[in-house]
């Protein structure tokens, strides 16, 4: 995608979000859409790691929930103004994830997923047990000041405004990523993903870009956590639980991670489906579990892939043909595959 | 005091051995990290609860692994075998989907409240161990862990099928060319791994409460064990399971504030030192 197209798509998406805000008058629908949008940002972060690094994280709830905790604790201690607390939370989590990334991205493929899960659960247990600081299992209220960045708090948390804010952040994150991955960083990380050994041979230091990508993905997730803290004014260990990471990963897979916007689509579909299912939503785990298995088995590229095929099939048969030709070329053996073995 | 804590550490370590040998076996033949393993353990525990209350604990101890083995064979036949040529990550995510389905199933059938299974009569007494009274049932748990570890090691090392399993986990193509039915072998081994998860569940039921969170607790500990021990290594997993069991038990008593962090700190330290785990040869 060219740079001008990224800008025009982002602009169009912003206008569409604005139109939606004025078109929908129901506060319930708007707050549902706000939640969906916030999780779309979360899924964008998780999907980025999978798309660009080939790594599935089962522990991103850590960065989602920690953002709320960091802000809540800083505000409770009255250590810094709220604006600074937001910036500190996002930067702090990004920095922490970079350091953690230096350790855990060295672990190959699937073991990485197990590790992220284990580290995430450590944070969950710690937040649950440190009653003094975090309120333990009861969670903690976040004491937002009356004004934030010059806007009165009461105006920010109105359903329409909250949706507009979340939507704008989503589009800015997505556009920013599209731009950022357009250049050298995107090319390097893709080279490392496809064949780490070969990338190393041509002189790329593979550890730093992978850790940087991990940090970026955690940073985006922490933005989603910050918006949740703003939206609900409350944070609890539930938000750190690994099932939240699992849900985000599910959105990524169902939406399709090959396209940047796939995870966001997955998040919105997830929330709408959960709402439509209504009473059956008690069994959402089984329903989405089956949906997850079905998508993986029958449409590995997810909804985004299915939509893309529908779109391309009509408009650009040549592009599809070129893609097919590319696909027939021998795939390099992924270094992430443990003990590469031949099919039998 | 120290004796009882060391003892409890060994009990939990023995339970983790039963869990992790199942994980390691399935990984060895199918290259699948089974995220549903904890849910299979939970399913085993709840099935054990029902069977034990209908008849008795000893029937459950035999019946549950048998039921789970059948389930494992079906899982391999209609799941892992169909997906074996796909990206390993794909199959991991399928097991994650399976986890969600099983958890929902268990919550629907047995509800969300905590349940407990009575200690079987025959083992409901205490034994004096170095001046401390310990429940006999827990000694039985240690015996099960030791039996599984010893049995599996001997089976893999000395039996003909064990030889096939070892060969197939290194190179399934060549093994198949030598005339081994690797599909049947894999189905059998996945069945065995699943049966072990069920066995762990039944064995745990009388001393750990049955609750919807029991699966994730043990799954995460098992993952830590498998990563520390090295993904491909059964013996590494045995040692790591005992170490983790002891750390969990001693940490909870002597360093209560840090107890949640200790296993992970150990894991990070080991990975910095040896990214493949302390007994892992392959990456």
UniProtKB/TrEMBL annotation, chain A:
Keywords: Cell membrane, Membrane, Transmembrane, Transmembrane helix. It comes from the Bacteria. It is found in: Cell membrane. GO terms for cellular component: plasma membrane. Pfam families: BPD_transp_2. It is a multi-pass membrane protein. The chain crosses the membrane at residues 33-50, 62-79, 85-105, 162-181, 211-235, 247-272, 284-308. GO terms for molecular function: branched-chain amino acid transmembrane transporter activity. Its main location: membrane. The keyword Metal-binding does not apply. The keyword Kinase does not apply. Residues 322-344 are annotated as: Disordered. CDD domains: TM_PBP1_LivM_like (cd06581). PANTHER family: ABC TRANSPORTER ATP-BINDING PROTEIN (PTHR30482:SF17), HIGH-AFFINITY BRANCHED-CHAIN AMINO ACID TRANSPORT SYSTEM PERMEASE (PTHR30482). This is Branched-chain amino acid ABC transporter permease.
Automatic annotation (TrEMBL), chain B:
The chain crosses the membrane at residues 6-25, 32-51, 57-76, 88-110, 136-156, 187-210, 222-247, 254-273. It is a multi-pass membrane protein. The keyword Manganese does not apply. InterPro entries: ABC_transp_permease, BCAA_transport_permease. Its main location: membrane. Keywords: Amino-acid transport, Cell membrane, Membrane, Transmembrane, Transmembrane helix, Transport. One of its GO terms (biological process) is amino acid transport. It is found in: Cell membrane. One of its GO terms (cellular component) is plasma membrane. CDD domains: TM_PBP1_LivH_like (cd06582). GO terms for molecular function: transmembrane transporter activity. Belongs to the binding-protein-dependent transport system permease family. LivHM subfamily. This is Amino acid/amide ABC transporter membrane protein 1, HAAT family. It comes from Polaromonas naphthalenivorans (strain CJ2). The lineage of its organism: Bacteria, Pseudomonadati, Pseudomonadota, Betaproteobacteria, Burkholderiales.
